Amino acid sequence: xxxxxxxxxxxxxxxxxxxxxxxxxxxxxxxxxxxxxxxxxxxxxxxxxxxxxxxxxxxxxxxxxxxxxxxxxxxxxxxxxxxxxxxxxxxxxxxxxxxx
Length: 100
What we know:
- The chain has helices spanning 35-42, 47-66; strands at 6-7, 10-11, 15-18, 23-26, 69-70, 79-81, 87-89, 96-97.
- By secondary structure, it is an alpha+beta fold.
- It has one domain: Transferase(Phosphotransferase) domain 1 (Transferase(Phosphotransferase), domain 1), CATH 1.10.510.
- The strands form four sheets. The chain has a two-stranded antiparallel ribbon.
- It is globular and about 50 Å long.
């Protein structure tokens, strides 16, 4: 399975394999969990931090769109955070090709 969408703010399929019994997809490990949990724990975000985070998320979505991929279920639970709190667009079940 080829890598189709990867940038600073996206983390999607990177390695895939299939046997008679198993099908596997390996993705980048994002240690800090969902953006939803982060926002809930912190009881929100300061405006400047939210603007920066939103800009990074939009950059990742734009990159996916440039590769012909649409996300179809973008929400806080599908944005994961790495160890430096960089957002990673996730959720492979709601991805679809954009037909142009």
